[in-house]
């Protein structure tokens, strides 16, 4: 009989500066089994490799790679590998500001959601949460995920019909233009402009064909180009242009210009 493979684990966890996100948790487990436990927060889970089987409210469930699992707070559940090689998962723990108690019953009944758009959005959110300085993008993606989850679990709760709002879009653009360097969070922008975050992002994207975080990063890269051509060093330029650090500048600069800041400023 073949020997049982040794249990292995690899974990990373952090708390991003994004309202509503309690914790981000990435893990690769082989041979590890979670006992029954509860969380105070909502558990938004995707599995990238392998699969997890778990019991929730005395019913057995599973998480193949094409699903998004949403486990409600204070409801006991466990978890164990459903494949010999274990599983690799990404989890976001969310407080109740994004998802209310009215969704708990539906989430208990249908915790595993097969929705390609939701799966794609959760993956994109994890990418944004992995980079300090991309909080506006992360918050924008999160508000649409909350809207999508609500629509899937309780469709009658989503009553607002998306509409254009060019005046609101213009006001947000003016706010972003005023705060290219210091930036603005989605929560603060929504409060200043008296708009729901999802409607604010949607109105801007509809009016200008670009998301607010993409617009802000474009403005910052333009500022960085001018500063680099003035002879300033990339590390200094990063802060002066509004980026979190030099790596944050380099990632967005290369994406929009095609080269790193250091190569851009050199003569042939």
List the helices and strands and how they pair.
Blueprint: E1 8-14, E2 21-30, E3 34-37, E4 42-50, E5 52-56, E6 59-62, E7 68-71, E8 77-81, E9 87-94, H1 104-109, E10 112-113, H2 116-129, H3 135-153, H4 166-178, H5 186-193, H6 197-208, H7 212-229, H8 234-241, H9 246-257, H10 261-264
Antiparallel strand pairs: 1-2, 2-9, 3-8, 4-7, 4-9, 5-6, 5-8, 7-10
Please describe what this structure looks like.
- There is one protein chain.
- The protein has helices spanning 104-109, 116-129, 135-153, 166-178, 186-193, 197-208, 212-229, 234-241, 246-257, 261-264, and strands spanning 8-14, 21-30, 34-37, 42-50, 52-56, 59-62, 68-71, 77-81, 87-94, 112-113.
- The chain is an alpha+beta fold and 268 residues long.
- The longest helix has 19 residues, at 135-153.
- The model has no long low-confidence stretch (mean pLDDT 91).
Q: Which descriptors would you attach to this protein?
A:
268 residues; six-stranded antiparallel beta sheet; four-stranded antiparallel beta sheet; 10 strands; 43% helix; globular
Concise account of the structure shown:
The protein has helices spanning 104-109, 116-129, 135-153, 166-178, 186-193, 197-208, 212-229, 234-241, 246-257, 261-264, and strands at residues 8-14, 21-30, 34-37, 42-50, 52-56, 59-62, 68-71, 77-81, 87-94, 112-113. It is of the alpha+beta class and 268 residues long.
């Amino acid at each position: 009989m073949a020997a049982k493979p040794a249990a292995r684990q690899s974990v990373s966890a952090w708390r991003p500066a994004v309202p509503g996100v309690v914790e981000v948790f990435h893990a690769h487990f082989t041979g590890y089994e979670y006992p029954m436990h509860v969380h105070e927060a909502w558990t938004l889970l995707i599995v990238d490799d392998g699969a997890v089987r778990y019991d929730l409210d005395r019913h057995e469930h599973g998480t193949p790679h094409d699903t998004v699992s949403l486990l409600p707070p204070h409801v006991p559940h466990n978890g164990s590998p459903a494949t010999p090689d274990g599983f690799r998962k990404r989890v976001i723990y969310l407080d109740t500001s994004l998802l209310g108690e009215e969704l708990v019953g539906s989430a208990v009944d249908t915790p595993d959601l097969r929705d390609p758009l939701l799966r794609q959005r959760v993956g994109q959110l994890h990418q944004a949460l992995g980079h300090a300085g991309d909080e506006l993008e992360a918050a924008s993606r999160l508000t649409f995920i909350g809207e999508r989850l609500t629509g899937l679990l309780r469709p009658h709760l989503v009553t607002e019909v998306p509409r254009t709002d060019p005046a609101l879009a213009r006001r947000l653009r003016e706010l972003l233009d005023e705060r290219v360097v210091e930036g603005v969070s989605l929560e603060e922008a929504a409060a200043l402009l008296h708009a729901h975050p999802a409607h604010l992002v949607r109105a801007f994207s509809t009016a200008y064909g670009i998301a607010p975080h993409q617009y802000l990063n474009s403005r910052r890269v333009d500022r960085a180009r001018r500063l680099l051509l003035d002879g300033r060093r990339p590390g200094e330029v990063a802060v002066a242009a509004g980026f979190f650090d030099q790596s944050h500048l380099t990632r967005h600069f290369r994406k929009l210009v095609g080269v790193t800041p250091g190569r851009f400023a050199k003569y042939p």
